[in-house]
């Protein structure tokens, strides 16, 4: 047996034996999470399985974020089902406005480096930002873990992506991950995991790292892992490193200093072009938020562009901070003031605009420039709208001019 | 497990947002989910679909969200099987977990309205309309066991835990 990749090590650590790619392993799970899209079905499945108590109430978290606060009576009743379950089981619930599930799991330290965490949301891969194995599952899969504390995984092959040098001004990890989605394609990592390494990662904040791992699912990956070298957390942790002779299915190396801002064109997150090749595209709606880019760093970067300026009167700019804590910090440090003075509408923390449930459904034929992770047809709630993806800085710059604009052109 | 039916063919990268839009996912009413299946992609699909029909995709069927409502909507609408050149992994797992059979066949050349007969256990797919055969990819035994029980709920009710040989 050759050396192990990080992902093989993390799975082995939770299986009690050394496992390698393509093996099926039953893992002990460190934590699970479900949102208001997936929790009601999971609770139903758990009860149908004969479940009465979740295996460990301190390791399960419920978050009301996808349609929060409830936009209608039916969703309000599903939220109440989650509240009732949380009370009965003693499971922690984050209620309306507290924030987006992935932001909360990291911000509240419910997931930690080296852990295995399953979430009933595809962007659970985000936890790779802090060196955890996070992966998305459906509701019934989650119910199985609620019952047993375990689940089965097929140990994936790993792709290694080496990132060298430093990002240029106005270029962020969102541009980097959009670029990689364009390179690998929307199924380029299906059934696989991705390990990110290289000196480009060293200076990156947790917020910047989150944007990288968040979008590995946009290449189909099971999990992403960002090298923990340089990772700053408010507590001590052990770093897991790959063996020197670990085997990767493929290794890709990139010089990130060559990147410019990137745009994903409708209707797929891998339909990516450098901004210089996109041309002038008018926009009617701009959105900064989501588990990908609604973090404090994202809001501050947008504010830097917007400070002392007004958005184009033909554009609506919506901002959803990723959590109540992010919102609060943005109020305290003046970021929120700058955004509002520029004409932005600040919305409660949640997933509504990104997933198209409420709070900003575009009209027919409208173009939206969004800092979210997906632009599938109908994604923001209207199949007849066009969603383009970009970094918060590019979204802010474009809101000022009314068309997709390189942030360096804002004076 | 032999499944026979008439095919409805879709292209590559059919994402879960197009199988069931996010705005319809907040419900436990499966019939309601089924009434919106594939709506954004093909508004006439629901009325053309007959019970037992087969949905066929190209590469990366079911990419995107983890929402289990996508395979549930297909199954409740009457779809008996999904065949694709490849599947996104969460959709694949979800389908098995809710008891919607699926099979991956890298090189299938199925056309719309072809009649198909599939043996899931042996991984053979016979296109009765074209008199052709395709080889299906074998799934892990734990998945076969879950599918044989009709889904994860019945599997865990029966065994109480996961078992891997």
Automatic annotation (TrEMBL), chain A:
It comes from the Bacteria. Residues 9-278, 279-402 form the Aconitase/3-isopropylmalate dehydratase large subunit alpha/beta/alpha domain. Binds 1 [4Fe-4S] cluster per subunit. It catalyses: citrate = D-threo-isocitrate; (2R,3S)-3-isopropylmalate = (2S)-2-isopropylmalate. It is an enzyme of class 4 (lyase). SUPFAM superfamilies: Aconitase iron-sulfur domain. Pfam families: Aconitase. Its cofactor is [4Fe-4S] cluster. [4Fe-4S] cluster binds at residues 291, 351, 354. Its EC number is 4.2.1.33. Keywords: 4Fe-4S, Amino-acid biosynthesis, Branched-chain amino acid biosynthesis, Iron, Iron-sulfur, Leucine biosynthesis, Lyase, Metal-binding. Pathway: Amino-acid biosynthesis; L-leucine biosynthesis; L-leucine from 3-methyl-2-oxobutanoate: step 2/4. Gene3D superfamilies: Aconitase, domain 3. Heterodimer of LeuC and LeuD. Catalyzes the isomerization between 2-isopropylmalate and 3-isopropylmalate, via the formation of 2-isopropylmaleate. HAMAP family: LeuC_type2. Belongs to the aconitase/IPM isomerase family. LeuC type 2 subfamily. This is 3-isopropylmalate dehydratase large subunit. It comes from Ferviditalea candida.
TrEMBL record, chain B:
Pfam families: Aconitase_C. Keywords: Amino-acid biosynthesis, Branched-chain amino acid biosynthesis, Leucine biosynthesis, Lyase. It is an enzyme of class 4 (lyase). Residues 52-101 form the Aconitase A/isopropylmalate dehydratase small subunit swivel domain. Its EC number is 4.2.1.33. The keyword Lyase applies. It catalyses: (2R,3S)-3-isopropylmalate = (2S)-2-isopropylmalate. InterPro entries: Aconitase/3IPM_dehydase_swvl, AconitaseA/IPMdHydase_ssu_swvl, IPMI_Swivel, LeuD, LeuD_type2/HacB/DmdB. The keyword Lyase applies. Pathway: Amino-acid biosynthesis; L-leucine biosynthesis; L-leucine from 3-methyl-2-oxobutanoate: step 2/4. It comes from the Bacteria. Belongs to the LeuD family. LeuD type 2 subfamily. Catalyzes the isomerization between 2-isopropylmalate and 3-isopropylmalate, via the formation of 2-isopropylmaleate. Heterodimer of LeuC and LeuD. HAMAP family: LeuD_type2. This is 3-isopropylmalate dehydratase small subunit.
């Amino acid at each position: 047996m050759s050396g192990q990749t990080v992902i093989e090590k993390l799975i082995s650590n939770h299986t009690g034996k050394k496992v390698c790619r393509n093996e099926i392993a039953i893992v002990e799970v460190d934590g699970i999470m479900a949102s208001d899209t997936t929790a009601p079905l999971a609770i139903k499945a758990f009860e149908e399985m004969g479940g009465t108590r979740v295996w460990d109430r301190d390791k399960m978290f419920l978050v009301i974020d996808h349609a929060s606060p409830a936009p209608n009576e039916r969703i309000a009743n599903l939220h109440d089902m989650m509240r009732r379950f949380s009370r009965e089981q003693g499971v922690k619930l984050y209620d309306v406005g507290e924030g987006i599930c992935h932001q909360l799991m990291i911000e509240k330290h419910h997931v930690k480096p080296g852990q295995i965490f399953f979430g009933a949301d595809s962007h659970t891969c985000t936890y790779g930002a802090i060196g955890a194995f996070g992966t998305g599952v459906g509701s019934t899969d989650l119910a199985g873990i609620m019952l047993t504390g375990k689940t089965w995984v097929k140990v994936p092959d790993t792709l290694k992506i080496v990132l060298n040098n430093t990002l240029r001004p106005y270029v962020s990890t969102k541009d980097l991950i959009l670029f990689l989605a364009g390179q690998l394609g929307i199924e380029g990592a299906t059934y696989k995991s991705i390990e990110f390494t290289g000196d480009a990662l060293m200076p990156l904040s947790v917020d910047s790292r989150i944007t990288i791992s968040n979008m590995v699912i946009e290449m189909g990956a099971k999990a992403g892992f960002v090298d923990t070298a340089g990772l700053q957390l408010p507590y001590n942790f052990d770093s897991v490193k790959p063996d020197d002779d670990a085997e990767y299915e493929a290794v890709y190396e990139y010089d990130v200093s060559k990147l410019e801002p990137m745009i994903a064109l409708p209707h797929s997150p891998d339909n990516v072009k450098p901004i210089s090749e996109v041309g002038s595209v008018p926009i009617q709606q701009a959105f900064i938020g989501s588990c990908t880019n609604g973090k404090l760093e994202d809001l501050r970067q947008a504010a830097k562009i917007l400070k002392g300026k007004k958005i184009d009167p033909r554009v609506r700019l919506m901002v959803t901070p990723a959590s109540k804590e992010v919102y609060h910090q943005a109020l305290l440090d003046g970021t929120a003031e700058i955004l509002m003075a520029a004409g932005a509408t600040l919305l409660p923390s949640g997933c509504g605009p990104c997933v198209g449930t409420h709070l900003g459904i575009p009209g027919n034929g409208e173009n939206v420039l969004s800092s979210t992770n997906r632009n599938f047809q109908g994604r923001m709630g209207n199949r007849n709208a066009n969603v383009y993806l970009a970094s918060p800085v590019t979204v802010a710059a474009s809101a000022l001019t009314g068309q997709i604009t390189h942030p360096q052109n804002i004076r | 497990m032999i499944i026979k039916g008439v095919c409805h063919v879709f292209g590559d990268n059919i994402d879960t947002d197009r199988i069931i839009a996010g705005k319809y996912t907040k419900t436990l009413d499966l019939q309601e989910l089924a009434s919106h299946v594939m709506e954004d992609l093909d508004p006439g699909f629901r009325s053309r679909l007959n019970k037992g029909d087969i949905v066929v995709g190209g590469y990366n069927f079911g990419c995107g969200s983890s929402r289990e409502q996508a395979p549930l909507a297909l199954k409740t609408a009457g779809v008996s099987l999904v065949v694709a050149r490849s599947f996104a992994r969460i959709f694949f797992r979800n389908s098995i977990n809710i008891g919607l059979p699926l099979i991956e066949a890298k090189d299938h050349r199925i056309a719309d309205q072809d009649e198909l007969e599939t043996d899931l256990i042996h991984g053979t797919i016979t296109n009765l309309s074209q008199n052709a055969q395709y080889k299906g990819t074998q799934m892990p035994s734990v998945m076969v066991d879950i599918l044989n029980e009709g889904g994860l709920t019945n599997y865990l009710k029966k065994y109480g835990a996961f078992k891997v040989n």
